Amino acid sequence: MSPATPAPEPGGAALELLVHGVGGASPQSMLDDPRTVRVTGDETAAVHRRADDLDAEDHPDRYAAGPVPEAYVWSHLTSGDGARALWLLLLPFMVVNLAHWMRPPAAGRPGLVRLYGVLVRLLALTLTVLLTAAVCEVALDLTAWQCAGTAGCADGRAWLGFLAADRGGWWSGPGRRLALAAALPTALVGLLWYLSRRTWSAYEAQRPPTDDTPTVPVPPTDPRPALGRPGFWYGRRLVARLRAAHTAVGLLTVAAALAAAPAHRDTGALAATGLALRAALVACAALVLWSVCGRGRSERRLDQRVESAVFIRLPTVAAALLVLTLVHTAWDRPGWTSTGTLPGNTVFGALTLAQGGLVVALGAVALLLQRPRRDPRTALAGLGGPATAVLACALGGVMSGGVAQWVADRLGGSADPAPPIGPPVLLSWQASAIPVLLLLLLAPAALLGVRTALATRRLRAAVEADYADESPDPVRTRQIAASRARASLTDSAPVLVGVVAGTALLLGAVSVVGAWAGGEVPGRAFADAHPAVAGLATTTQALGSWMIGFGFLLFVTWGRRAYRDASARRTIGILWDVGTFWPRAAHPFAPPCYAERAVPDLTWRMRSWTGHTGGRLVISGHSQGSVLAAAAVWQLPSATRARVALLTYGSPLERLYGRWFPAYFGPDALRGLHRAVHCWTNLHRATDPIGGPVRVPAADGRPGVDAPALRDPVAYGRTRAHPLPEPVLGHSDYQADPAFAERRAALLDRLPPALPRQRADEPTDQGSSGRSSG
């Protein structure tokens, strides 16, 4: 349905810059016209107009009835070919990066803020070590050390024949087998480095306007919020440093796994060489820790400096040490055979303990940060960041443990009798935790179901009150009430995340204790217990292994579908787009941040158009587009903001971002945005599961931001104006409501009249306005 046309309004040129939300949109659907033209931008993100509106600025009298619509389409920043589904495999990295941005606000406490950032970056580093160690476990320990060294395993696999210890080939020595198998984790680290570097250049390397951006840091007393700082959307220097550190630590993990294998066999010169290599690895690891802890984000300036060569060359140093370790490990050692397992149990146990300690410290810092001023709307009382960090560690542990257990089952399950091929005990315990975790989650899921049913019954009276002029219809009332009740489930997300995080932390502790106390996998640890207990432990272990294999396939399948099917993308779109909205401040291998391209795009367009035409502009953002619009408005200079109105609808600014990211979208930040922008209106519905009110009241003579909740559906029953039943729209089609055009017209009326338009030979405020005449 086309938006209603407002009454003619004075004031010269006016532009409506439309920004779509999750799931993507085409310019044809946004502009309600099959004939659209790209005004400025490229195939990845661009501004479009209707073909008939290209010369709108030259004929303002034709557009006296309303603003000229423009559509900013950014969907290709987060969707595209099916290969991007592989980004879902980097989910733990994305989640830990979210934890960085979830810290509570901390005015006047820079030391605690820096400590919070350091702890999250260290947690992110442990995830890189965990991923690399898991691949080393599969390639080095399970395949090259255990399976290739066991006749019952290697004989049944032709692809392992040249590595089999009993065949006496050149590659059959344990050291050479390990050196060859190290190619897999090394290639993975190299791939992650390449993807991080490539995606940075393709998506995030977009400089914001620089004509009035300070080259020196703005003072700490600067009133601008974090998202309005000149360097917020340009984190090249930190990403470069973190990319070097994580690449180096990945290579060092491979080298450490290789160096530990022959340590007990080396004598004489080999022992001295091995000791020197291990000392060099420790020294390089210390330098990596220094680089990660020593610098955070530089947001108060547009930092275009190149990172120090000492840190940028860390991957080169680590690669050189890896090559030396490969030569040392592959050296022939007579009588050396591969028995037992590599010392992975200690490594994974130490990683789990380190992550647990870092999470506890992060929780303590978060509590200290939010103590002076606690907002009751903040998710988990300010502990959203630590809880999210727990989820990242749990995802990494379950994925690594499950994959290792699944590979071990495949390698050891075909021979008869099956050889004793198995991963470290701790990984088996972590894989066994998957069905237990899912079983424990049934209770809160059932509770939410009951709560929704009760809310549906309770909301019937409110629905009938909203449509008091209509004849009651129990079926219709129940349908609307159920939509409102389901939409309210979003507000229960903090409780669910807290339960999952607490359960994961508890199961992680149980896994460490069980692995270290008994030294056996769950099935064997309870072998002497009651038959029912022993059977349950064995079943849980097998079920966990099966579920991780099935889950991996489901993960990739749904990932590909989410990037090709719009309906599937909408299902998970909000979570994915929230995760990739934020810059890579903690983990450089996380999926790329689309906002570091989109926000500068919007900022440049608003500045160039208003500077060239002197006209009025309303930036109109739906869903995630409202977050991009708010971030872009924060980046505008005050002279431009005076000519810009903000219209948000279906917006998660407070409901999601304000609760989970209070330092950046909390009540103080949103009230500051209200004061900064000339005028702002927010539209919302009670049936919307994503958007909601922004809860910014009237202040300083300005009206409140939130308009009254829109009725959804527009008509309760059949009327002359609506002869067919109207659907419950929920999160979609806000522009179909007549109130949308009315509120947009009211915003434009509140903006100051248009300024005289600059001549074509006069410079604009930034020197470029794109390809259009505007």
TrEMBL record:
Compositionally biased spans, kind Polar residues: 765-774
The keyword Transmembrane is annotated on this UniProt entry: yes
InterPro entries (alphabetical): AB_hydrolase_fold
Disordered, as annotated region: 747-774
Keywords of the record: Membrane, Transmembrane, Transmembrane helix
Protein name: Integral membrane protein
Transmembrane segments: 85-103, 115-135, 178-195, 244-263, 269-290, 310-327, 347-369, 381-407, 427-450, 493-516, 536-559
